[in-house]
Amino acid sequence: MRKNWTLFHELANSTKHFQELYNATLICMNITETFPLINVTVPVGNNSICDRCNKPYDSLNKFYKQMLNENPSNVCMDIVDTMNYTRLKWSKRYGCGKPHQDAYSVILLTVFFSLMPVIFYVGSKIHGVREEKKIMKQKRLRPSKSVDHISSCVEEDTTSVINS
Question: N or C: which end of the chain has fewer CB within 10 A?
Fold first, then answer.
């Protein structure tokens, strides 16, 4: 906006609202972390910060997702960076991240399909019908008639040579 040849910058309403939600989340995290007199301790994975600040954090996260869905090109990089840092702090420092439901289903399906061949082969070994092996006699090992004929001819020749 210009007034008297001077350039003024005004934040969009969505940016102002994001800043309000971010400040509420940050204040909640800082107060819960700073004042242990309110019966709050802050080790890693602490549920008290997760419980106390869940509502402001969820509001901030939902509004950020809404901003990205409506018009991702109008989301300022400062907002993206702020949200990335807030998510990192929420999940890594405080240990408040929610486990992904997809991970459970992937692990379950992997285990199921890995065990399927084992179950199949064990079941077929236990319940399978066993056939006795049929031993086939090989035809080439049987004496042939031509060999019998030759051997009988050799015997006749030797007897005729001996008789003469």
Answer: C
Q: Summarize pLDDT for 116-130 with one digit per residue, the tens.
A: 999 998 888 888 777
Q: Among residues 114, 118, 98, which one has the least CA distance to residue 106?
A: 114
- 113 falls in which pLDDT band (50, 70, 90)? very high
Stretch (H or E) spanning 26: helix 13-34
139-163, pLDDT tens digit by residue? 665 555 555 555 555 555 544 545 5
Q: Are 21 and 63 in contact (CB under 8 A)?
A: yes
Residue 105: which residues within 8 A CB-CB, separation 6 or more? none
Q: Are 10 and 19 in contact (CB under 8 A)?
A: no
Q: Are 11 and 4 in contact (CB under 8 A)?
A: no
d(CA 32, CA 26): 10
- Beta pairing partners, 3: 6
Q: How far apart are CA 97 and CA 45, in angstroms?
A: 9
Check: pTM over 0.85? Answer yes or no.
Answer: no
Long-range contacts, 64-70 (Cβ 8 Å, 24+): 64/18, 67/14, 67/18
